[in-house]
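ugh ok fine here u go
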Amino acid sequence: MSKIPLTAKGAEKLRAELHRLKHEERPRIIQAIADAREHGDLKENAEYHAAREQQGFVEGRIQELESKLANAQIIDPTTVNAAPKIVFGATVVLEDTDSGEEVTYQIVGDEEADIKQGLISVSSPIARALIGREEGDEAVVHAPSGEHVYEVVEVRYE
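structure:
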């Protein structure tokens, strides 16, 4: 299996979720199943079936997180010495050449991407257009909504 790139912050977030699932959710669900069993007939016991279904989701997510963390290549953006070029982990300030609007994105792994927090996946069209560029360069992004041209205003590693 190929390595999954993650920032140090993203890996820490996944570890925290894994810890919560193993040490809070799993015991709570096991207790809920035990409580539901005490009610008797399991065939028509909705609480029991709901708890078992929830257990399946949690166990699946635990396996998924363990697999991703085991195959992760953790990259700390503060130790990447790629400036002035844009690489994985860079925080980039861009200006849309049409509207003049500025946006800030950090290029992160697929698992930790969250556009609402300004975290874009390294495999997204914007990140692919930015990798290898420097401050002052223009990047043409081919998005489903059309072609957008951005000027790279600032590149930093934090």
